[in-house]
Amino acid sequence: MFALQVLVVTLLVAIGTAGAFLLARSDAHNAAVGEVTAVAEAIARSPGVAEALRTGNPTAELQPYAESTRLATGTDFIVVMAPDRTRYTHPTVSLIGQKFAGDVDAALRGGTVIQQYRGSLGDSVRTVVPVREPDGAIIGLVSVGITTEAINRGLLRQVPAVAGSTAVALLLAGAGAWLLSRRLRRQTHGLGPAEMTRMYEYYDAVLHSVREGLVVVDRDGRVALINDEGRRLLGVPDDSRVDRPVAELDLPTEAAELIASRRPTVDEPVLAGDRVLVASQSETRFEGRTLGTVLTLRDHTELRELTGELDSVRGLTAALQAQAHEAANRLHTVLTMVELGRADEAIELATAELALAQQLTDQVVGALDEPALAALLLGKSAQASERGVELTVSDDSRLAGEHMLPSRDLLTVVGNLVDNALEAVALADPPRRVRVLVRQEQDEVLVRVSDTGPGLTPDQAAAAFRRGWSTKPGAGRGVGLSLVRQVAERYGGSYAITSGTDDHGAILTVRLPVRTP
Q: Which PROSITE patterns match (predicted)?
């Protein structure tokens, strides 16, 4: 790069010097033409020259005058001649009386001849003007010239100044090129163009092919890069320009706040639309200078859903194991009563247990036409029994199959509200109850879950739906209710927590507008 810059600068200076020389040469030629024309005009208009031309021997008077004028003006020759071109004066005395070599026709017609001609003294720039009588008659001609060699000598006297200027220009340009090359090398960390090209190609290919979202922010708070996965996770269109401040990009609120804060974090849950992302952010530094921040994002939505389903299955399995144990005890009791000959009492006991087990199933299935929701509540009921919690579904629950609300969103809301209530009452004093109401009203679905737990203070209730907030310590908590909030906001619904009454610790209410067919 440095060699290329020096070569370009040298060529530019050489071209500039050559141009300056050509301009100086042209200026010198024009100056010589102007000088000889002025001298010739002055001699032709001199009264003594016209009087000398009228005498019988013009040379006697004109030769000394011409030579003194030539020496005084610095010209190379002054020739006064007759109209037939016979010389009366010349620096070379032997040429006096001989014919003048050159074109004088225009001067004989009253004009001025300006030409570059090779005469007796060599190449010269000359002017020929007429000498007139008072009545305008032409009685002679005056030619004044400067040789090209004399003009070149004048140019050569300017060469040291031009050469000095050229040398200074080359030194300054070379120093500037060296400083620029040094700065570029420092900024590129010593990488050359080929290395930078190869590094950029690898950099671009790797960043856009990784399966983690990547957001790079510079030190001025402008988003420098969002890779393909990052655009997908954050909902940034592919054709959207990202070289803008974070506030000008339409990013999810929590992601934008995390990026703007620049605080370091590792595996922090972030909600982006209906996705649960795990974000890690760190500051990037090089040689003690802060370059910006790098945010990596991983999609844990499906993992969270699978984890939730796995937890539900585990809870249901534990509940089924407990129920199997209880059922075995009851079965042994019934068999023993039969063996003791008390068959009627055994039948009565078995029928009562069957009716009690079937009551909740009939109630849930009869009230809710949504199979997935009914299955969820039955599973949560078994899970609640294992925990020593009584889960009941309100008799007012009604949900038709034509509510036009996706099962996934409905399960997210009901499942998280019930899980939150079960955790609230698990460690509370008896009685431990959770009551669920799911009812389709005119243009919305109402979900209300109440519990007999300790309840929440007004400040806790205001923060409960914020991501990361939880009454229990530990990482990864505070996500369930924030997912409920996201679903409600996506449908333009509402969510609220009211504190307990005498028999309720907290009541969580969510309203989801629906489109009826």
A: HIS_KIN, PAS
The CA angle 458-501-360, to the nearest 5 degrees, is: 115
Residues 288 and 311 in one domain: no
* Cα–Cα distance, 492 to 489 (Å, whole number): 5
d(CA 479, CA 309): 15
Domain span at residue 239 reads 211-299
Query: How many structural domains is the chain composed of?
Result: 3
Say how many C-beta atoms besides its own lie within 10 A of residue 166's C-beta.
16
Task: Give per-residue pLDDT as tens, 397-414.
Answer: 888 766 567 777 888 888
| CATH number of the structural domain spanning residue 216 | 3.30.450.20
Quote the CA–CA distance of 370 and 375 in Å, as a whole number.
Answer: 9
Dihedral angle over CA of 154, 160, 165, 168, nearest 10: 170
Q: Where are the alpha helices (DSSP H) in 250-300?
A: 253-261
Residue 355 lies in a domain: yes
Long-range pairs of 458-466 with CB within 8 A, sequence gap ≥ 24: 458/499, 461/497, 461/498, 461/499, 461/506, 464/497, 465/495, 465/497
32 & 100 share domain: yes
With CA atoms as reference, report the closest residue to 278 among 145, 475, 109: 475
Span 283-329, pLDDT tens digits:
888 777 788 898 888 887 666 666 656 655 665 566 566 566 666 77
Please check whether residues 316 and 292 belong to one and the same domain: no
CA nearest to 140, candidates 154, 129, 151, 124: 129
Domain membership of residue 176 (yes or no) is no
What share of residues in the chain are helix, strand, coil (percent, to 5)? 50, 20, 25
Cβ–Cβ < 8 Å for 86, 99: yes
